[in-house]
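Page 37, top half.
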Amino acid sequence: MVQPLHLGIRVAGGTQRQNGKTSCRKVGVQTILNISEYATNENPKSLTLLSRACYAGNSSCMDNVTHTLTGLMLSRAGLNRLTPHAAAILMLSANAADIDVASALGGSLRFLEYHRGITHSLIAIPLMAMLPVLLVWLLAHTRLPWRRAYLVSLAGAASHPLLDWTNMYGVRLLSPWSERWYRADIHSVVDAWIWAVLLLALAAPALSRLVSSEIGARPGTGRGWAVLALCFFATYSFGRYLLHSRAVATLDARLYGNEAPLRVAAIPTPFNPFRWAGLVETEGFYFIYDDLNLLREFDPSGGSVFPKPSASPEIERARDTETFRAFLAFSQYPLWRVTPLAVPEGGKRVEAMDLRFGSPPQPRFVATAVLDHALRVERSWFAFGDLPVPGSRR
């Protein structure tokens, strides 16, 4: 008999700003154990609970629903034959790299600096795989075949940076030796098709179990659905890669205001794999295209144009702050703005935003500094949303 699912604390996923700081809430260990037991028994209620528990509130992470369900599908696809509690181990290891969300306790800037760094690097995968095995051993009070349990956990731990690499936020795979960001830009942080197939593979065995109980047949294990979901994930990702290459080539083959592009980026959207957002940088401007539809003719004159400001003492002074150094180490397409302020008198407000995540009308991922008339930094801060909250960081 399936026991009721008891959700404890730490069940919400994603990153939200609260009281001016970033609050990152992730799936708790005991929650994963409880969900895994429930999901392993193909209970359809786990579909809704997983969605609510792991919803990602902004673009900072490949959503934890996808990570968690990928771990569960790996278990059902056959890895659960190798060790007890394979579902729990894989669901935990598929999320283990996000242990770096603890950096959010230091505020938005610290989260920006440390998220998707060392814990998401290739060298950290063996350690990220060990932690879930130890946690399951401690909480389940069950003997585990350590070697096989660790190998199973490795599969989940390796899936996390791989999935994070596919979206536009990127991941520092070679940290700590290199802080370079790697990103494929083929998936949105939340992809509707991936969610649909993974959730279908989660729920289908429950429906099959229900039908089998009515007709007296032996219920399936869900292995076929899990293999199908993982195969779809891989095939869909390859298709997205091909479409992304086509979108990049489309952007790169045009002139923009009689200027050739210096760089272009095609940013995925959640629903239609043929629709992308385009970002083009030329010598003097940024061009943003909200609807780059690969099924239609591309019109380079149809985007929003934002001029790149010339170098100025205000911008150079802001660059020297800790806030802007951390932001510029992360940002791939920074757009600067300098605006005068009434208070302090003769002061200036300097902003830099990452155009992958927003635009001047709707800024996101914004570093801000307030300078006085003598270009002294009064305060500086970083915010993910369009309502930045000051925090003294010089």
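Page 37, bottom half:
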Amino acid sequence: MKRIATTLLVASLMATPMLLLPATAHAAVSIGIGVSVGVPPPALPVYSQPIAPGPGYLWTPGYWAWDPSFGYYWVPGSWVMPPQIGLLWTPGWWGWSDGYYRWTPGYWGTHVGFYGGVNYGYGYFGNGYAGGYWRGNNFFYNRAVNNVNITNIRNVYVDRTVINNINTNRVSYNGGRGGIVARPSAQQRTWASQRRFQATAPQTRQRETAMRDPAQRFKANRGRPAVFATQHAGNFGGPHAVRAPAPVNSRMVASPERARPMARAPQRGMVEAPRDRVQQPNRPAQQPPRRERERVMQAPRERAQPARPMVQQERRSAPAQERAYERAGAARARGGEYRGPAARPAPATRGAPPSRGNERGKARPKDDNGPGH
């Protein structure tokens, strides 16, 4: 009896810590091992990419994560520093297996492995990564698919060939009904067996922040989360956080027609001429300023005179009438009649000059006083 009592006591003491674990601890353990869900994840939203904060940051795309308490929630994409120089990020992905949708977590490695063929955008178009590459200790960014500022990031290039024949559907899982049909290649299987690095602390903080935010849950946002992407992981309130969906022609939905043209950066010490002005032929080298030209070319404008009242006109004509009455009275006193001011003679009309041809054709008149008379 003592042995039985002792055994039951030890068993109860071992089970007590497991009963005291909160629900979030069980969720965290299940997420680390792998999640199996009976319903497929929602479609990927289309969002704009925040500008890269500086050299060395790599883009990690957003994804739908799962929690047993409230279902799917959106983890925003973000720029993250890799754990080591030379590492690339392989995104996690949902795949259909044995009647469930299972989550395969992402990882860091020297190559980008298989991620279900899901088109996450911004270089992650379903196979490999077209957003950049490492050269020594520097990462070079493809401006055709990344939002970078050449003022603080000099290692850039433009390669639009990587966005040809891109499947622009927003399906977020592999296999199953309506899922993406893709299988890993032999090379990708080899890369999967190489050394891996798990998600960094900022990436984990990004997922935990999204899990605690009700506005990120699909049940509340119906595919339109409050925050789509962030510039820094874990900072949902930053000035560069993306809180609105992107237009259809964004770089996330990349295609040859929809990719935005990128302006070429001017070289140091050189000044680019404006391209929107066409040089006109035979144009003088120097011209006066625009205001001076307007003064020369434009005729002076007459200002419209305000309408004058009739009373003022009558007042101004009164002195002339009084002078006319005085002149008429003086004429009557002299016994004459005043007929008003004399009319001005009309200007003499100037006749047309005689034609030279007629003068040559007419005979000259004879002089009576000439010889012979």
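Margin note: The first helix runs from residue 2 to 20.
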